[in-house]
Design a protein that fits this description.
This protein is mainly α. It is built from 28 helices and four strands. The protein has a two-stranded antiparallel ribbon. Strands 3-4 form a two-stranded antiparallel ribbon. A hairpin with a 2-residue loop joins strand 1 and strand 2. The relative contact order is 0.08. Residues 461-513 are annotated as: Disordered.
C-alpha cells in the first residue's frame, strides 16, 4: 500500500516525461492525474488506519541502499501519524493541482513536460516525508529542490523565470549546506542516521560538548541549529527568504503546490520529525521561536504594499510559515503541524483562486488593473472569500483553530523569546487581515480598472483607486506588457511579443469564470478551508491528541504547553479576532470608503513605502554583500588566474614560444639554391674542421 503511494507519482512522471510526445498532452494529463488521485485515495485510507482504533506505527523496508564502514543506510518508510498527515496533505493538494492544471495550462504546448515535473516533485516530496533516516530525507530534500527549479523556470524563454529558478536553487544551497553538516554531526554523535537509533541515543548526549570553530558547543544544540539552517532555507525563513517571492514567476499551479502546501513546509516537517532532538536542545528551540516570530512579522509588513496578486499571497505564505515555527519553537509541536495541515487547504485555495482571477483577466496579475470582478466571476469570488476568512482566522474556519492555538502557546510558554514571538504573531494577525482584505477589495470590489474603464475614468475616486499605492509600474521580477502590467504567459509563445494578436494584454475583453476542471478543485479546497479545523482539532490539539500522535511528536515530561494552552487568559484568546476585525475595518476604510487614502499615505511616507515595497532592501543588500563580490572574485580568477597565469604560462605560453621559434626557422627557408649551397658548404667546412681537430688530438695522444 505504501509503495503505491510513493511510486505511483514517479510512474506518472516517467510516462509523461519519456513518452509525452508519443502519447500526446491529453493522455499525459490523464495518466499523471489518475496516478495522483489513486495515491491520494490510498493515503487517506492509510491515515484513518494508522490513526484509528488499533492503528500503530510501522517501518516498511524497501531495500538496503548502501553500506560504508559503520554507516548503513536502508531505503525504508517510517509510517506513523506524522507521516500520514503529510501523505494526506501532499497527495490531496497535488491531485487537485494536477486537475486544476488541466484547465489552466490548456494553451501551453509543453503540457507533458509540465505534468511530468509536477509528478516528479510529488514523488520527491513523498520520499522526504516517508524517510526513515536522515540520508533518505536528504535525498527527498534535494529532489524537491531540483523539481522546484524545473517548475519555477518552466517558461524558460522568460528571463525573469530563469533568474528566479536559479535564485531559489542557490539560496537553498546555503540552507542545505547547514543541513548536511547537521547530518554529519548527528552521525558523529550517535553513529547512525536512522531516526529510531538517533532518538534512542539522544538522551545520553544531552550534556555532550563538541569543539567547532574554536569553541566548545553543546553538541545537540549545534546539531539542531545546523539542521534548522536547512529548514530556514527550504521554508523561506528570515534571512533565507528572498527566493520565495521571486518563485512566483512559475505557473500559478506551481505556486499552489510548492509554495503553499508542500515544499515550503518541508522545514516544518523536518523540525517536527526531529522533535526528540530539539526537545533536548532548548537554546535551539529558542532560536526557532525567535526566527519564526521575526519572519511572521517581517513578511506581513511587505505584503501590505505588494501589487502583484500572487506576491501578496507568497508573502502571506512566508508569514504563516513563521507562525508554524513559533508553534514548534515553544514546544507545541502539534500546533505547528496542525497549522501546516490547515494552511495547506486555504493557501492552496488562495493561490488557485488567484490563478482563476489571472485566467479571467487574460493573464493580468497587477491588482491595480482589476476591480469589480465580483459581478463577472462570482464563484471565484466566493472561493477567495472563504480562503481569505480562513487565512485571517475567522471564527470556526480552519485557520481559526490552528493559528489561535499557536498565539496562545506563544503567550503561555516560558521559553526565551516567547514574548517576542507572541507580540510578532498578534501584530502579524492584524497585518494579515489588512493585506488579505486589501487584495480582496482591489480585485473584486470598487470600480473596474480594466477594459474601457481603465482609459476614461468617470469619477475622481476611480483615478485614485487606479493609483492606489503609487503609480502603476513594473513589479520586480515579473514579465510585463507595454502597458506596464504584470503578465503570466498563457503559453510559451506569449513570452515573445505577438503583434498580430492580443496575448498578454488583458484590457479589451470581458472577464469570464474558469471552466469546471478548475472550479472543482477550488470547491474541494474550500471545504477543507472551512471544516478541516473543526473536524480535526480534537485529534490534533485537543483531548484526543495523545492517542492520535502517539510517539510521532516528542512532548517531553517537562513540556506541558499543550495543556497550558487551554488556560490562556481570555484577552489572549480574543486578541487574534480583535486584530482581524481591525484589519478589515482599516482595509474597508482605505480601499472602499476612501480609496484616495493609500495614494496620499504613500506620498506622505515615501521612504517607508519604498522600504516595504522593496522588501526591506534585502535583495539589494545581498547583492552588495555577496553577489557582486562573488562575481568580481570570479571575474578576477577568470581574467588573472585562468587567463594570464594558467593560460599565459601554460598552453598559451608554450604555443607562443613554439610559434616564435618556428617563425625564426621559417626565415631560413628563402627558396634560393645558392643560399642552400652556401649553408651546405659551411656545414661541410665545419664538419671537416671538427674532424681535423678531434683527429689531431687523438693522434697526438
Amino acid at each position: 500500500m505504501y509503495h503505491a503511494i510513493v511510486f505511483l507519482p514517479l510512474i506518472g512522471a516517467l510516462i509523461a516525461g519519456l513518452f509525452g510526445r508519443l502519447i500526446g498532452a491529453r493522455v499525459s494529463e490523464y495518466v499523471t492525474t489518475s496516478c495522483l488521485a489513486f495515491a491520494c485515495l490510498i493515503a487517506w485510507g492509510a491515515f484513518f488506519i494508522v490513526t484509528g482504533e488499533g492503528g500503530h506505527a510501522e517501518r516498511v523496508q524497501v531495500a538496503q541502499w548502501f553500506s560504508a564502514g559503520d554507516l548503513n543506510v536502508d531505503w525504508a518508510f517510517k509510517i506513523d501519524t506524522l507521516t500520514c498527515v503529510m501523505l494526506v496533505v501532499v497527495t490531496t493538494v497535488s491531485t487537485l493541482v494536477h486537475l486544476y492544471s488541466v484547465g489552466y495550462m490548456e494553451e501551453d504546448p509543453h503540457r507533458p513536460r509540465f505534468f511530468a515535473y509536477l509528478s516528479l516533485f510529488t514523488f520527491a516530496m513523498l520520499m522526504l516525508v516517508t524517510a526513515d533516516n536522515l540520508v533518505q530525507m536528504f535525498f527527498g530534500w534535494e529532489g524537491v529542490g531540483l523539481a522546484s527549479y524545473l517548475l519555477i523556470g518552466f517558461w524558460y524563454e522568460k528571463p525573469s523565470a530563469n533568474a528566479a529558478a536559479m535564485k531559489a536553487f542557490i539560496v537553498n544551497r546555503v540552507g542545505d549546506f547547514g543541513f548536511s553538516l547537521g547530518i554529519f554531526l548527528v552521525f558523529v554523535l550517535t553513529g547512525s542516521v536512522s531516526f529510531d537509533a538517533i532518538f534512542a541515543k539522544a538522551p545520553e548526549l544531552k550534556d555532550a560538548a563538541f569543539h567547532f570553530l574554536g569553541y566548545d558547543w553543546n553538541a545537540l544544540t549545534l546539531a539542531c541549529l545546523l539542521l534548522f539552517m536547512g529548514a530556514m532555507g527550504k521554508s523561506a525563513q528570515f534571512l533565507l527568504h528572498t527566493w520565495l517571492p521571486d518563485a512566483m514567476e512559475g505557473p500559478t499551479p506551481v505556486s499552489a503546490l510548492i509554495h503553499a502546501a508542500t515544499m515550503v513546509t518541508a522545514g516544518v516537517f523536518m523540525v517536527a520529525r526531529l522533535s526528540p532532538l530539539f526537545e533536548l536542545a532548548p537554546v535551539a528551540l529558542s532560536v526557532v521561536t525567535i526566527i519564526g516570530g521575526i519572519t511572521a512579522f517581517f513578511a506581513a509588513t511587505i505584503g501590505l504594499v505588494q501589487n502583484d496578486i500572487k506576491r501578496v499571497i507568497a508573502y502571506s505564505t512566508c508569514s504563516q510559515l513563521g507562525y508554524m515555527f513559533v508553534g514548534l519553537g515553544v514546544g507545541a509541536y502539534a500546533t505547528g503541524v496542525f497549522h501546516l495541515f490547515t494552511h495547506a487547504f486555504f493557501k492552496a485555495l488562495l493561490f488557485l483562486g488567484a490563478g482563476s482571477v489571472i485566467h479571467a483577466m487574460h493573464h493580468e496579475q497587477d491588482m491595480r488593473n482589476m476591480g469589480n470582478l465580483r459581478r463577472y466571476i462570482p464563484f471565484t469570488t466566493a472561493m477567495m472569500t472563504i480562503g481569505t476568512l480562513a487565512l485571517i482566522g475567522f471564527p470556526y474556519t480552519a485557520g481559526y483553530y490552528s493559528k489561535d492555538a499557536i498565539i496562545e502557546a506563544a503567550y503561555m510558554s516560558d521559553r526565551p523569546g516567547h514574548v517576542l514571538a507572541f507580540l510578532a504573531t498578534v501584530i502579524a494577525a492584524f497585518m494579515t487581515s489588512f493585506y488579505s482584505w486589501r487584495l480582496f477589495f482591489l480585485t473584486f470590489e470598487g470600480p473596474a480598472r480594466w477594459g474601457a474603464a481603465a482609459h476614461h475614468d468617470a469619477h475622481p475616486a476611480v483615478a485614485h483607486a487606479t493609483h492606489a499605492d503609487g503609480k502603476p509600474g513594473h513589479t520586480e521580477g515579473a514579465a510585463h506588457d507595454e502597458h506596464g502590467s504584470n503578465v503570466e504567459p498563457a503559453h510559451k509563445s506569449d513570452v515573445v511579443p505577438d503583434h498580430a494578436g492580443d496575448h498578454g494584454h488583458g484590457h479589451d475583453h470581458t472577464p469570464h469564470e474558469s471552466p469546471l476542471v478548475m472550479t472543482i478543485p477550488l470547491a474541494v479546497l474550500a471545504f477543507g478551508a472551512l471544516f478541516a479545523g473543526v473536524i480535526f482539532k480534537d485529534r490534533f490539539i485537543g483531548e484526543g491528541m495523545d492517542a492520535f500522535w502517539g510517539h510521532s511528536l516528542a512532548h517531553g515530561p517537562d513540556n506541558h504547553i499543550m495543556h497550558q494552552i487551554h488556560e490562556a487568559p481570555g484577552w489572549v484568546s480574543a486578541s487574534p479576532f480583535i486584530m482581524l476585525v481591525l484589519g478589515f475595518v482599516l482595509a474597508f476604510w482605505m480601499y472602499i470608503r476612501r480609496p484616495e487614502l493609500p495614494h496620499i499615505l504613500a506620498e506622505q511616507q515615501p521612504s517607508l513605502y519604498r522600504f516595504l515595497l522593496n522588501k526591506w532592501y534585502f535583495d539589494e543588500l545581498y547583492d552588495r554583500i555577496f553577489v557582486r563580490p562573488a562575481k568580481n572574485f570570479g571575474l578576477f580568477l577568470w581574467k588573472e588566474g585562468d587567463g594570464r597565469i594558467i593560460d599565459g604560462m601554460g598552453p598559451d605560453g608554450i604555443s607562443a614560444r613554439v610559434v616564435d621559434v618556428t617563425r625564426g626557422v621559417v626565415r631560413l627557408q628563402t627558396g634560393y639554391v645558392y643560399h642552400y649551397a652556401f649553408v651546405m658548404l659551411v656545414g661541410v667546412a665545419g664538419l671537416i674542421t671538427w674532424y681535423m681537430l678531434t683527429g689531431a688530438a687523438g693522434g697526438m695522444h
